[in-house]
Amino acid sequence: MSECLYDINKIKQILPHRYPFLLIDRVLRIEEPDSPDTRVGATAVAIKNVTVNEPFFNGHFPENPIFPGVLLVEAMGQAGALACVSEDDFGKDFKVMIAKITNARFRKPVVPGDQVLIESKITKDRGKMFVVTCTAKVDGKIVADTELLAQVLISDKA
Predict the structure, then answer these.
(1) Which end of the chain is more exposed for a tag (fewer CB within 10 A), N or C?
(2) What is the model's pTM?
(3) What is the residue extent of each domain of the chain?
């Protein structure tokens, strides 16, 4: 098992998501942007542990449970949000909203018991909008990848 940079409690301090929609269990690594005046190059490597007791498995699909692809994209987006946040943003109302999903590919089903390793890297920075390239792997093999356009909404908490 790799080192843990952010545990679930630290992730909950940053992301506004909560059960059952908080889909990142651990952050292994955060790489800083290529330069201080851009988010380009910022990368998050995170873990999603897939367990059979998650609520969507009751209907997707009871006899052959498969982690929904839309939730896999959401998990990749949450990792992308963690890549673009800075220490200065901690304690602020920080939200990242997916604006566009491009070229999403699902190569292999993700099932209970899998540990998904997600890498999300910011490739373009357009101020409040950014593009993040995401890859999800299980046992070293790519199970999904996509490119997301996202918008950052940050305000001070009252």
Answers:
(1) C
(2) 0.93
(3) 8-156
